[in-house]
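Workshop exercise sheet. Pairs work together: one partner reads the sequence aloud, the other fills in the structure field after running the prediction. Swap roles for the next sheet.
Pair: D.N. / O.F.
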Amino acid sequence: MMNITLLQAAAAGAKGGAAGGSGFLLMMVAIIIVMYFFMIRPQQKKQKEITKFRQSLKRGDKVVTVGGIYGTIDDVKENYLILEIGNNVKIRVDKSSVVRDISDIQQR
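Structure field:
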């Protein structure tokens, strides 16, 4: 008698498991879609904006580097910039280290 009850329970679980499996799959697809629209897509958009900003840098722009160095662009090369940080003090920095243009911000 106990064996029959166990077999019936196993059969009912197998039928319910198939329906639950498709619900689980649907839920996983929904989670992936939500993650794409709330995490991946905005990050890709931000990265494109940063790349466009770095390509548009030109001589005379006032910028800040990742390390917090404020300076004015003296020369632009393919992979790096010559940054003037003081009177006749120039350093070479990688383009990827420039994070912000401060030309519009009023200097004190």
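Discussion prompt: The helical segments are 2-55. What would you look at next?
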